[in-house]
Amino acid sequence: MIEMAALLIAAAAFVVSIYSALWTRDALVETQHQTQLAREANQATLEALKETQRQTTLALEANEVTKRQLEFAQQEAERGRIVSAWSVLTTKARGNSGKKEALETLINLGVELEGLDLSCKTMGGWDAEKDKCETGVFLDGVTPHKTAPRAKMADVDFSGVDLHKAQLVGAELVSANFSSALLGWANLSQADLKFADFSGANFGFTDFTGADLRYADFTNAFLSNVRFEGAKLGAANLANHTLHGINLSGADFCSAIIDGEKVCAPYLKQEQLDQAWAWADRPPILGTDMFGRTLHPPPLCDPSLRPAYLEKRSWDKPEGC
Q1: 253: exposed, middle or buried (C-beta count within 10 Å: 0-12, 13-18, 19+)?
Q2: Which of 4, 18, 115, 137 would suit a FRET pair with 34, their CA atoms being 20 to 30 Å apart?
Q3: How many CA atoms lie less than 13 Å away from 71 in the CB half-sphere?
Q4: pLDDT level of residue 46 (50, 70, 90 thresholds)
């Protein structure tokens, strides 16, 4: 009986081991199957990623082509605007002939305008019999965009041109010709105007704050309520001009060099200075006149009056000064 029980137990164990082996085999087969499915899924994912990358590359290449096409189109459009603006500026025409807008366009695009000639004689507004400009080019109110680069207009000829209310702040206008031009309410602050010709020009409420006016010629110009605060006026010709009520605060009359020597105000007279004014904390830098006589500051105003003066936005001498 004992031997029979042992045999039965052994047989049962054998059967269990066989079933266990079969189960393990099935489990391995299923694992291999799942692994194969995972590999296939991963492969499909990789193929999908590759296709996505390919499509992305194609899209980027297409975008780059489109970008280059847009840049080319913009460049062509800009060239067209420049050509058109130059055509308008150089066409012989006086008065309101679109030249203001053309000038603004070229300045905004950073085009150098050295030597541009819009003079009354060139543009057909000169009366030979009367020997004067009857109708010059209208550039009144010309205003480049605030983000435009600095206007480069050295040696331009604006003689006889109407520049009323022109906004040419910081412009490069070395040796520019403004003879007989109309410059009322024009803003030329911070502009480089060395050697500029303002002979016979008409000013009124013109702002030259911080401008470089060394060697400029104001012969026979009409100066009225002009602001020279902080301007460089060394060797500027202001002879025979009344400076009544003009603000000379911080103006530098000793900033010119002629023949290697510093020159102050050879054309300035003390009686002219006596007509002007300046803040006491910013007197003008003076020197001597052509006869070697020391020039003294104009009447100086108490800086405590400045806040009320600035609030009033006046061009006249401060009240109470």
Answers
A1: buried
A2: 18
A3: 6
A4: confident
Give the angle subtended at the CA of 290 by the CAs of 214 and 196, to the nearest 5°: 20
pLDDT tops 70 at residue 8: no
Could you give the C-alpha distances from 146 to 32, 115, 143, 170, 208, in angstroms and in order?
A: 73, 24, 9, 11, 19
- Total Cβ atoms within 10 A of residue 101: 13
Q: Which of 145, 152, 126, 137 is nearest to 100 (CA)?
A: 137
Q: Residue 56 CA to chain centroid, in angstroms? A: 39
Looking only at the bridges linking them, the beta strands covering 256-258 and 278-279 are unpaired
Distance CA 260, CA 256 (A): 10
* pLDDT, tens digit (0-9, with 9 covering 90-100), for 94-151: 999 999 999 999 999 999 999 999 999 999 888 888 888 889 999 999 999 999 999 9
Phi (first) and psi of residue 59, to 5 degrees: -65, -40
Query: Residue type for 55, please?
Result: Q
If you write DSSP's letter for every residue of 253-316 in order, what string do you get? SS-EEETTEEE--TT--HHHHTTSBEETTS--B--B-TTSPBP---PEEPGGGHHHHHHHT--S
Do 190 and 213 touch, CB atoms closer than 8 A? no
Say how far residue 81 (Cα) sits from the centre of its chain. Answer: 19
Residues 6+ apart with CB under 8 A from 125: 94, 95, 133, 134, 135, 136, 137, 160
Instruction: Return the axis-axis angle of helices 2-90 and 99-108, rounded to nearest 10°.
Output: 140
Look at strands 256-258 and 261-263 and give their pairing: antiparallel
Lowest mean pLDDT among 61-75, 214-228, 246-260: 61-75
For all residues of the chain together, what is the average pLDDT?
Answer: 87
DSSP 148: P
The span from the CA of 228 to the CA of 172, in Å, is: 17
Phi, psi dihedrals of residue 252, rounded to the nearest 5°: -110, 110
Of 224, 219, 254, 255, nearest to 239 (Cα)?
Answer: 219
The DSSP secondary-structure symbol of 222 reads: B
Tokens of 195: 């050697």
